[in-house]
């Protein structure tokens, strides 16, 4: 059977990340040796130490889960082989009547059954009792088939619960690591490293903000957006052409006044 892809980090990826975090921590500690009073370096050292600790826990959990699955697989592989080769007293005592089959695993019981295509054990649910055994549906896959009673067993509750718990711990640890990394990436390093006099204050004048932010200062001689227009003076409210017309009007008016007095 085949399932969907997983985004879980592999043991190799976790080990690689752990090595990277440790290298970064060494670099930060070297910086702290040169500047022990730098609060930014102190914070970075603390954050990296936490991430390293979480990664180590996640790596240990992943290795433990891998070993548990491997041990279960070996046991599952050995048991059917021995039963098929030499038989067993338990196999000889398998119930054959439908009544006995129903008493052992009633309809609706969660069990583990061997999938005929690959011979592996999978979680399944008893859907019906048949003269030859059980009709099961494999959980999470939807495949259904009739299975011999020898290839049906109770769910190993202890092992399953341990694996589920390990997966939950691993997932929670991974999410915690992601959160720590995201917080570190989102930190405002500019506000912690720039001197106070170089930080932009929202209350500063436009020319000061433009100086610090690199924004180009607007010229007082503003070119119009219309290609046929003429250059105007910024803040005057009128173009240069209108100003010239008004000046000419005042000049003529003054000339007429002088002639009237004479």
From TrEMBL:
Region listing for Disordered, in residue ranges: 219-262
Q: What is its main location?
A: nucleus
Q: Which UniProt keywords are given for this protein, alphabetically ordered? A: mRNA processing, mRNA splicing, Nucleus, Spliceosome
| Compartment(s) where it occurs, according to its Swiss-Prot or TrEMBL record | Nucleus speckle; Nucleus, Cajal body
Coiled-coil positions are: none
Q: Name one GO cellular component term.
A: Cajal body
Q: Which Pfam families match?
A: SMN_Tudor (PF06003)
Q: Which domain of life is it from?
A: Eukaryota
Question: Where is the Tudor domain positioned along the sequence?
Answer: 104-162
Q: PROSITE patterns attached here? A: TUDOR
Q: Which GO terms describe its biological process?
A: mRNA processing
CDD domains referenced in this protein's UniProt entry, alphabetically: Tudor_SMN_SPF30-like
Q: Which SUPFAM superfamilies match?
A: Tudor/PWWP/MBT
Protein name as catalogued: Survival of motor neuron-related-splicing factor 30
